[in-house]
Amino acid sequence: MTPFEIERLDFSTHAVAQWAAGDERRVNWPVVYVLDSAGSSRQPSVYVGETVSAASRMRQHLQSPSKSGFRRVRVVIDETFNKSACLDLESHLIRWLAGDGHFIVLNGNEGIIDARYYAREQYRKNFREIFEELRSEGIFQRSIPEIENSDLFKLSPFKVLTREQAIAVEHIVESLLQDLATGNTSTSVIQGNPGTGKTIVAIYLVKLLADIRDYQDTDEIEQDSLFSEFFVPENRELLKTARIGLVVPQQSLRESIKRVFKKTPRVSADQVLNPFDVGKSSTPFDLLIVDETHRLNQRANQSSGMRNRDFTEINRTLFGADDYSKTQLDWIRAQSTHQVLLIDERQAVRPADLPREVLLSEISGAERNHRHFPLALQMRVRADADYVGFIRELLRGEVVPGSMPDLGKYDLRFFSSVLEMRDAIRDRELVTGLSRLVAGFAWDWRTRNNQPGFDFELEGAEFTWNRTDKDWINSPGSIDEVGSIHTVQGYDLNYAGVIIGPDLRYDPASHRVVFDRPSYRDRKGKENLSKLGKTTTDEELLALIQNIYGVLLTRGVLGTFIYVCDPHLREYIASVVDGGAA
Fold first, then answer.
1. Regions of the chain short of the pLDDT cut 50
2. What is the pLDDT of residues 450-489, one digit of tens each?
3. Taking the model in full, what pTM does it have?
4. CB neighbours of 217 closer than 8 A, spacing ≥ 6?
5. Where do the domains of the chain lie, and which CATH numbers do they carry?
6. By the 8 A CB rule, do 503 and 525 touch?
7. Which residue spans within 272-423 are E strands per DSSP?
């Protein structure tokens, strides 16, 4: 392909007029451009666009108040460019800039695409060269692998949606706008296995609705976008005063999403809530989007005395009495007119999580009301077969030895030595990054609150649980620690080294996977629900432990390594995983 050029000019009427008088490609050729405000006194911002007339588009931007803070423009010109290639490059640059985090990206997210077109892969090789030239000039601070491994990138609202994700978003937004206009109430459910992008859909929805609410008539809306029809004055008016929140039960994931929202225009970190924030709010919400709905609590002993008091007070405020039957999902309903619930009923991991029958009831209700949106396409694990289904069957002991599906290039390995697996994870960390050891909660957490020492010993080596509950994956020293379910649920890793502890065993006599209660050390993970008069049985705990390992074993994008403590379970899993023990 013909080498690209990046032309640079000041963002001013005089500079644009002089520049437009030269090369005809500046006035009649598909190009991509980058506007930035580096050097201004405000938070540096950036805007990426594509056009067939760069000179005309720059003159339009110069008249727009929203673009008044920009100082420079870079125009990428390539004789081979066409409309499709420009839209693709625009989408790549927006996503990389959002993940880099140096600039505030002022684009909306409605136009991010991933269309097929002629010679796409060759164009995308050139995109990386364009990235490197822009990086050399300070537009990017980090490399592409560093960016794509970051939470800012992985949890960014600037994502390419799959067709089923886009259809879900389109129907939810369309229905919400109709309901806001008519005063109806509604509950929608997005259901999907690990890795189908439920969290991404939630984040995308919050940003899209904010963009519809705040767009200006002079803004450029990608007309080929599935969502362009929503950008009309009447919808803007409907959303003008709408109060929208994103509820995230897990602390670590919630803090990560807050950091993303702080870098994203038109949304606010204050919109990212825990269930207690919702319960205590004195002002109701128009819409609450609930990620990981299965992690909402029913009435159980909370993590602190203060939270137990909060549960009581919220129930009294919302329902007139401390009704033990009320759950945090009831708080969500009481405090909002519309709800979008993101559910995987097989990712509950503690007795206090919402019961499976409650989740299935929500799914059934949404199906009856034609507001159920299943996500099937696996976006995380790069395997050719149904890896998630295979793992769940494996953990139930239902896979016949020697019948492992063809996973393509996915790197699934069984290790007979945990030390060898640890070395392999460290090797992968050097090559790809985002490679971590994780384990079931089968050992006491003696180092909690930064106590000295280690937590458990295997093969004569000392292992320590994660030293922080917030953003553990990206924390210093995490490669030398072991992550728990509560620090990795909702996150991606490139490689996960999973230690299956003695809490999960295999009974060779009955050919069944069984639960070992004494080996399970998460006190809140096995407690009875005394206020509800419920005793947590071994059968119920087995299902929760299988859910936990199902989550841990589906974190790895490129590969999963497995070590098993119980000798009988080790033998069974080794007999299934092709190639035996590594």
1. 580-582
2. 899 999 999 999 999 999 988 899 999 999 999 999 999 9
3. 0.94
4. 233
5. 5-148 (no CATH), 163-375 (3.40.50.300), 387-576 (no CATH)
6. no
7. 272-273, 285-290, 336-343, 372-375, 411-414
